[in-house]
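cache lookup: miss for this entity combination. No prior model stored, computing from scratch. Input as submitted by user K.M.:
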Amino acid sequence: MRGGHRTQIPLFLALAGFTAVNLTPVIWGFLTSIKQPVDAFAVPPRFIFAPTFEFHWQVWVEKGFWHFLINSAVISVGTVVTSVSIGTMAAYGLSRLSSTTSRGLLFGLLAMRMFPHILLAIPFFVLARILGLVNTYPAMILALVAINQPFTIWLMRGFFVDVPHELYEAAEIDGCDAWQVFSRVALPVVRPGLWVTALFSLLLAYNEFLFALVLTGPDTKTLPVAIAEYGGEDINYWSLSAAAAIGIMLPIVVFMMALQRHLVRGLALGAVKG
Amino acid sequence: MLFPLGYALWLSLLNYDLGSGSQEFIGLGNYRELLNDARLWATLLRTVGIVLSAVGLEFCLGLLIAYGLYRLTFGVRALNLLLFLPNIVTPVVAALFLRWIFIGRWGLVSGLLIGWGIFPPDFLGDPAWARVTVVLADAWQFTPFMILVLYAGLNTVDQSQIEAAQIDGAGVWMLLFRIMLPAIRPLIVFVLAIRLMDAFRFFDTIYVLTGGGPGTATETITLYTYALAFRLLQVGKACALGVLTLLFVAVLVATMIRIVYRREKGAF
Amino acid sequence: MKPEGINRRYVLRAALAAPVILGGPARAAGTIQMISHRYPALEHYAEVMRGAVPGVTVNTQLMPIDKAMELATIALSSKSDTPDIVYASDTTFQTFVRNGWFRPVDDLWAKYKDEFKLDDFPDSVLAPFRHDGQLYVMPHTLNTMMFFYRKDLFDQQGKAPPTTIAEYRDLAKSFNSPMRAGTISCLKPVDAATNEAHWYLNALGDGWFDNDWRPSFNTAKSVAAIEMLKEVTKYAQQGFTAAANDECTIALQQDTATMGLQWATRAKSMDDPNKSRILGKIDWVKPPQGHGRMGGDGYAISAFSKQDPDVLFRIIATSAGQKSLRDAASLMIPPRKSVLDDPDLVKANRFYPAALASYESGTRAPSLPEFNAIGEFVTRRILQGVTGEMTVKQAMDTAASETETFLKGHGYYK
């Protein structure tokens, strides 16, 4: 149905070519992470060199990045669980409201996404200090949930709008209360959508830098902050940043590979009704 | 949940200046000052230019590739994963990766061009090229998001509609524009709206790549906000600028939604 | 079911429950927080601080200066009791002191004078860290811009290092080739560009300000100085408008530029085989006509810290002690006289004589708390002048009027 073999091969090659170009910065970053700076920044670029895993070793073993990985994991999982639960319930509620009301609410929430985050960092810090939460996991999780919520609600709402109303009506006739309609009827239908929302929430939480810089401390520092600390002055640090950046991609890649089937199906199912 | 936003809104009404220590209520004074500020209008205009080119490029490229993937019968899953990778790179370092590609002389692109005997342009130092580079940088990071969402959307289009169109003799492109695009319109609005909102806040990459330069060629509104808050320490004014940005983006997105849904009330 | 209800309740519940569940780690009472810019010398000091006082844990957080200053600004402006020890350069310290964020250390200085041999710091080193007669910072490094040049190339052509900026421009022109730029130029806003403009303005122009803090960077002489800067950039490496110290250092190390102004802290890496392809080929002299930017950094104690000031002072005094400075001597210019004069160190670091000459002929940044802020719009205008968005004269005049407006808003010119 989708075109014969004659078009398939060129199509594949074109797409693969684009993919290759697209990946160049990542690959180049990886090569940089296994070169000494004298090779990494050579003119013209060097493709033959003595590889060194010194920087990867330094990052994970000497500088103790695994500790920050644990922090990142706790914060990411906390954010995903909280944010997806709230998002799901709120989206379900919205999907059953009239569309004018829900549109207004949604737009209000989206305001957070449009405001420069650098300015939100100050209020978040002030708030966290008042609550005594600086350098704790909850502070970071709450901030990330607040930032991420509009997106999850919007995305999840798309999935719920797809659920036929007859299903709800049938359940109500069977005597389900509101909670049961939600948990037994609506939720199972949108399960693939949950994975998609979870992935995007995870990406946001895992890579977030600005709030992490302000709200975390020595006990809760996340990977992006740890990497940014090596962003600067001496070019030895550049190789370190590259090594760390490549390293911290891996958990997400594994997560995506595990979930890929759900992901595409999930997106296909839902977001359409945006 | 909206407390931080409320707090920022409150700050925007103060003459809150860390440099002089003042913290008095001045009502809309900050807004009045900003609206009369030539730098605001110049950066706003430049930002709109950069954002629209970037989001436009991402959408066209994203749609093209998503449609390609949709028509492809093998290797889709692997390509999908690989195409998504740039979106996973931590933004802090993503900009550094791009810098190593684009910087003059020892950057990869320059290096390769020199190797082939072509004298490369100065990608970060020439005003026109710097703008192009910044747009490309944003596209590199966020086209994957477009691809993933649009690809999923294309897969939801009703198969019977497509078959009907093919029987009527619709070609590959006709199919895309006449049948598929209208069918996934809500999704298109969603991705465009999200990307517009994010692109306006786009900061890290430009800050690392060009620092807003050369001159003011790539100074966007967020860079201006940053300069106000952390260089000039005028936090109140910076918050006011944030609120103005918010209003502007909100109007832009609302207009876009209104245009797409002119005839269908309440479909958003 | 009302969605807002779910939301609010859920957030509240999460907020209340989360600390219990996750056991939000309370900060150990003895842990001292330090925040700093990061480069190799400062890394060394951080390590010394961590072990400075037995039984006291010091947590050091080092990051690029702009991020470190953002973080310190957010924390101190809301009077947070962390960090306890804060990095200060001769320019950032002005802003922080003016805002009341640092604690004067004169009392502690007197108390520990003998124990830490504090008389060893020359008064010229301490002077820039005084404000209204009070001392705030324990100096850890001296730094100065020096003139780096390729001795091998100069020798080949029978040329001597320039003694005036005009000579420098002519040499840059004659050495300039497509594959190797005549000079480096580091004009990324804000800090790098400020430093480079500083040299031209002070060596050729009328400097930044007159005695009443009126801008003097737009006088006829100063405009001519920036015109000279613009002329020199014709022979600069590609991407100089986005180049900071890193990019310039690499340009020299990778043999793609011939000479230029750079910090003394970068000198040692020119001879590092892991980073450089021009081992032993660079030599240094003081900047032509002097007046290169000089400065230094150190550490100050936060005014809001709840830790014992004596302990905090011991920590920074130990990391600025003779042994600590000697161990870091190849990475900066040591601020203690006894270390600076040590003949063994001079022998081991061949850039020392030039660094000292540069330091003696150098000029400090204006002692104006607002200087960092002003740098923001002045460098922006200078770059507009350099890239031809407007004439240099226009650019400097605009910057001057912006500066006057800004300073007037901060209570100047009354």
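stored under new cache key. The two ends of chain C are 63 Å apart (CA to CA).
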